[in-house]
Amino acid sequence: MTTTHTFVVLNESHQSELARLIEIYQEAIDPSEQKTPAEITAMVADPRYALMVSITRGEVSGFSICLFPPGADFFLLEYMAIAAASRGKRVGEALFAESYRYGSARAADTMVLEVDMPGSSSNPDNDTEGRYRFYRRMECRRIDGLTYILPLETASTPPPMMLLVYRVPAVVSLDCGRLRTWLETIYETAYGKPRNDARITKMLAQAARTLAALPL
């Protein structure tokens, strides 16, 4: 029997769903990559964000958080995670597909993702290898030649990361200027950092004039 998942974009009336989202977030996301519960809660009323939960057999089984920077030619899948009891049951595939469907209808065809490099974390609970395999199955592509720096100041340093793209042609050249605009937009909109943040210059210092989006 096929399990049916329903999807809900949260508003301020969904208090119990939001509380469960935050529980899953704190369990599944590496502490070095977490925003505070207050920051997550504030996203519900922020028109730039969509917090989506999957409901499976009446329970919240996972969530995604998408950011829609005004005027951008992409949207950012900022976070996605599945409840421990629902992993391995194809909830992730369904939630990923629905998040992209919603985002592409609302904003742009290109979805950008910040994802840990496999093997980059010393935290045994941070399954970077499993996450990599998942996004490879989803046919995401990595921006070649870029080591992404997550601009969060937490108790520990986030691991090295990749910037992935979804739903681009099989062969694509991404102009370095366009990539800089993406990075500036993410830093400013998602993290409140200046567009001239030195980490952006550092990321692009060794980049070619054009970069390929390659299969994982």
Structure in a nutshell:
The protein is 32% helix and 25% strand. The chain has 216 residues and is α+β, with helices and mostly antiparallel strands.
Give an overview of the whole structure.
This protein has helices spanning 15-28, 37-43, 91-106, 128-137, 176-191, 198-204, and strands spanning 5-9, 49-56, 59-67, 75-82, 111-116, 141-143, 161-166, 173-175, 210-215. The model has no long low-confidence stretch (mean pLDDT 92). By secondary structure, it is of the alpha+beta class. The longest helix is centred in the middle third of the chain and has 16 residues, at 91-106. Strand 3 and strand 4 form a beta hairpin. A nine-stranded mixed β-sheet has the order 1-2-3-4-5-7-6-9-8, with helices on both faces. 32% of the residues lie in helices and 25% in strands.
Structural class by SSE content? alpha+beta
Between the first and last Cα atoms, what is the distance in angstroms?
32 Å
Radius of gyration: 17 Å
Q: Count all strands and give the number.
A: 9
Strand order of the largest sheet: 1-2-3-4-5-7-6-9-8
Helicity range of the residues?
Answer: 25-40%
**Shape from CA axes?**
globular
What proportion of the residues form beta strands (DSSP E)?
Answer: 25-35%
pLDDT < 50 stretches:
none
Number of helices: 6
Give the averaged pLDDT, no decimals. Answer: 92
Multimer state: single chain
User: What does the main sheet amount to?
Assistant: 9 strands, mixed
